[in-house]
Each structure stands twice: as structure tokens, then as C-alpha cells.
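User: quick one, sequence for these C-alpha cells?
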């Protein structure tokens, strides 16, 4: 896995004239175990089909329903169509990183694996709407795993 990641980083850096980047600010809902608002941002870069992304997201706890707060910081590999098809650019991504789950005085943290996909929809120029669904598999001590997250956000391609 490390060799693949090193090769992908090398290819990305070796051909910067074909590289692109984007940033997304998003709002959504974490539906596990009950629906709560979530917010965050993602920063990505890549070539035509393969990309890399870092994402930070935060969901507040709901003590009345026993739903924990969840904070994640994930790095992912993204596979996408090389161009938008009819204004739509679908993608799939998978990766891992850090999570922190809190409910009252209880805290759990560790490694999380995120898998999901979505679509970037062209609006005007470099501005796009991004819709994304993720399944987050948290560590074995987590209260809620897997966690499911759906969000929409504004994406700026540069």
C-alpha cells in the first residue's frame, strides 16, 4: 500500500501541468445513530482520474438521544471520471485517518476507514455543487460504527 501511495504521489508531482485542485465547504447530516448536523471542509488535488484529498468533519453530540459527537480527519484516494459528463463528475473514494467520538464524559479515538462516493455538479465556471455519501468504520470501542454521513457543499476548482 505504501508503494502504491508513493507512486501516486510521484506521478502527481511529476506532471504538474495536468494537475488540478479543489476545495469544498460542506454541511450535511450524520445519520448514525440519529440524525445530527455535520459540517466540514475538504481539500484535494490530483490528475485526470486519480486524486488525493484531506477532509475534516465535525458532528455535534445529542445527549437526549445518546448520539455521540464525531470529529474526523481523513486522507483519501479519489477515483473520478476525467471530465464532467453533462455537467456531472462522479467519483469514488476510500481512505483512512483519525476519529474522535464523544458522548458526555466518554471519549473514544483511533483509526477510521472511510468509503463512499458522490458527484461534483458544474454550476458556473469553476464553481460546483458537491454531493457526497460516506460510510465511516470507526474503531472497535466506538459507540456508533459504522457511521453514515451525507453532505452537500460548494466546491471551487482551481
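Assistant:
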Amino acid at each position: 500500500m505504501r508503494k502504491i501511495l508513493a507512486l501516486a504521489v510521484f506521478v502527481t508531482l511529476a506532471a504538474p501541468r495536468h494537475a488540478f485542485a479543489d476545495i469544498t465547504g460542506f454541511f450535511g447530516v450524520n445519520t448514525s445513530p440519529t440524525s445530527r448536523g455535520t459540517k466540514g471542509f475538504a481539500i484535494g488535488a490530483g490528475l485526470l482520474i486519480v486524486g488525493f484529498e484531506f477532509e475534516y468533519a465535525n458532528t455535534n453530540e445529542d445527549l437526549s438521544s445518546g448520539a455521540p459527537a464525531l470529529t474526523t480527519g481523513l486522507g483519501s484516494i479519489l477515483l473520478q471520471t476525467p471530465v464532467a459528463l453533462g455537467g456531472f463528475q462522479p467519483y469514488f473514494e476510500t481512505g483512512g485517518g483519525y476519529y474522535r467520538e464523544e458522548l458526555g464524559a466518554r471519549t473514544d479515538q483511533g483509526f477510521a476507514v472511510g468509503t463512499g462516493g458522490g458527484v461534483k455538479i458544474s454550476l458556473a465556471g469553476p464553481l460546483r455543487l458537491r454531493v457526497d455519501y460516506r460510510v465511516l468504520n470507526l474503531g472497535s470501542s466506538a459507540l456508533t460504527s459504522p457511521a453514515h454521513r451525507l453532505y452537500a457543499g460548494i466546491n471551487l476548482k482551481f
